[in-house]
Amino acid sequence: MKIGVLSLQGDFSEHEQTLARLKVNAIEVRRKEHFDGINGLIIPGGESTVFSIMLKRQGLEVFLREKILGGLPVFGTCAGAIILSKKIVNEKNFSPLGVLGIHVKRNSYGRQVESFETNLKVRGLKHEVKGFFIRAPEIVKVDKGIEVLARLGNKPVLVKQENILASTFHTEIIGETAIHELFLMECEKQAAKI
Ligand code: GLN
Hints:
Blueprint: E1 2-6, H1 12-21, E2 25-29, E3 40-43, H2 48-57, H3 61-69, E4 74-77, H4 79-84, E5 85-88, E6 100-105, E7 116-120, E8 129-133, E9 138-142, E10 147-152, E11 155-161, E12 164-167, H5 178-193
Parallel strand pairs: 1-2, 1-3, 3-4, 4-12, 5-6
Antiparallel strand pairs: 6-9, 7-8, 10-11, 11-12
The structure holds glutamine.
């Protein structure tokens, strides 16, 4: 199993460390040729506006969208979830990839100082997972057919749509591996089809 981590910006190294804990081979993805042979891609947290600029600059925007629509498993965390979404309700300056049927509101819980951690119940997991919400977006709308795997209050915070998994929170920064393991199960399922 070889997992790519989009390494244009943001906390890609924490994702690599989490994959290393799971003894999974990780590769930093910055150019089209880095996609060769990967079984899944993680889009880390960071700044979604910067991701959008970098994806365009690297000529990856259309390419990445096609890869995901073609079935490449992808896991977006926080800014990564924003990039995957269909619509950003409070953003006029850039458009997301539009592959995941959720509407998001950026920085919905406030500024950096309002960041927080909380325990979350996740469907399919026996133990609760500590999620870190760092200038996190809120998922304000989900399309039909999207599985909501975790909520905070009544708001979805972890969603799945076929090959796409997205969380508005981080777990990789404390080495929690459970959500990554869920993602790897999807990667293995897809790899078995090939
Ligand atoms: N606030 C960032 C954005 O809107 C996301 C922050 C994060 O990834 N932790 O892109």
